[in-house]
Amino acid sequence: MKSLKENFQKAHIVIIGSGIIGKFNALELSELGFQVTIIDPTELQNSSYAALGLLMGNMYQKRRGRSWNLRKQSIELWPQWITFLQKFNSELNIEKPLIQLTTNEEKFKKLEKFIYENNDQNLRILEKDSLFIKNINKAFQTKTIKGMISFKDGRINPFSLLQTLDKYLKQKKINFSEEEIIKIRKSNNQWISTTRNNENIKSDFVILCNSLKAINLIDGISQKITLKPVLGQAMEINVNDAEVDLLSLPKQFNINGKNIIPKSKNKLIIGSTDEYSTKPEENTFEKLTNFLDKKPNWLMKGKISKKWYGIRSRPDGEPSPIMKNLEDGLIICTGFYKNGILLAPACSKWVANEIKNYFS
Ligand SMILES: Cc1cc2nc3c(=O)[nH]c(=O)nc-3n(C[C@H](O)[C@H](O)[C@H](O)COP(=O)(O)OP(=O)(O)OC[C@H]3O[C@@H](n4cnc5c(N)ncnc54)[C@H](O)[C@@H]3O)c2cc1C
């Protein structure tokens, strides 16, 4: 009898879309022995390249249900994948810990209750007198910031991650086609993906990882899938002020919902906005710095040195993400409105299990 791996080697899988979700699916499936082709015309402009890379898994406050299960699985899988991917880039790492802060007393009470009830050794409350909080309150010129620290959560540099995945895919000689798929159809038990240049690519499976555009390739109405664009802006600010040393702050933290990543003594990244549109609003600086009632002077005087955005897809009427076996050999893995980087390992595992089921 032939081994499963031998059967897998004969199956050809086309992945449409080469953001983090497409690339991670390619990694998982090619490690299982499948023949994989990824197709994407403009991968450098996707939302994965815009991401900040925070992995907010353990600090997620709902400890049951689908969202938590995906997070839990991803938190377990990430360290294993990092060890694997370090063979291709020894510097790839998850920078820990992650700190979540608030100036809202009610939200802080909820954090305390969450930590108390879950008795999770990887989470701890940061009181006013902790060194982290002292430095943050001093830098942001407030007295009211408090929060929690998660030792297992952190940040992975998305650019470095995507480049490492590219290196893996190249070394594994995974086919990559810089084309746009405009139509998919089934013929004689095979899927045919048609490119804008009228080339037909045959496969046994198609995985739709092309975010918002997935809807154009299926009948969204009969499948009852609706996706809305949500634009997220982020910026790098240059602070020309001796009164603050940004390196005295934690490596990554969140205050009242805004993620902050100090890059050097006088540079930090802040993200992101949630805009239900495909065109970035103009008041980026104001939208990204309004997380405190009163901004510190250095932040008020800060100048944007870089800004960027990405458009994510949010499922309408059902929770994010959408992972479904639509019909024989056609799988959709999209709707990563937030946390696509965090959830990539768990979602790819789900896709791989669906495909393995066809062979059992
Ligand atoms: C500013 C910002 C900050 C963020 N921060 C974080 C964070 O800290 N942590 C986190 O986990 N997540 C974060 N996210 C969310 C994360 O970026 C997304 O969840 C994730 O990138 C979604 O990945 P994706 O592969 O589904 O989509 P994308 O990266 O958008 O990739 C979709 C790809 O499909 C391709 N495509 C489209 N149509 C076709 C077609 N017809 N044929 C072939 N290819 C096609 C596109 O070219 C594109 O490359 C952030 C997002 C933004 C915008």
Query: What characterizes the major β-sheet?
Result: 8 strands, mixed
What is the H/E order? HEHEHEHEHEHEEHEEEEEHEEEEHHEEEH
Task: Identify the quaternary structure here.
Answer: single chain
| Name of the top-level CATH class of the largest domain | Alpha Beta
Instruction: Quickly give the structural class.
Output: alpha/beta
Span from first to last CA? 13 Å
Low-pLDDT residue spans: none
The tally of beta strands, per DSSP, is 19
Report the portion of residues in β strands: 25-35%
**CATH-scheme architecture of the largest domain:** 3-Layer(bba) Sandwich
Bound molecules: flavin-adenine dinucleotide
Question: Given the C-alpha coordinates, what overall shape results?
Answer: elongated
Roughly how much helix do the residues carry, as a percent range? 25-40%
Main sheet: strand order: 5-6-4-14-15-16-13-17
How many helices in DSSP terms? 11
Going by CATH, the homologous superfamily of the largest domain would be FAD/NAD(P)-binding domain
Radius of gyration: 22 Å
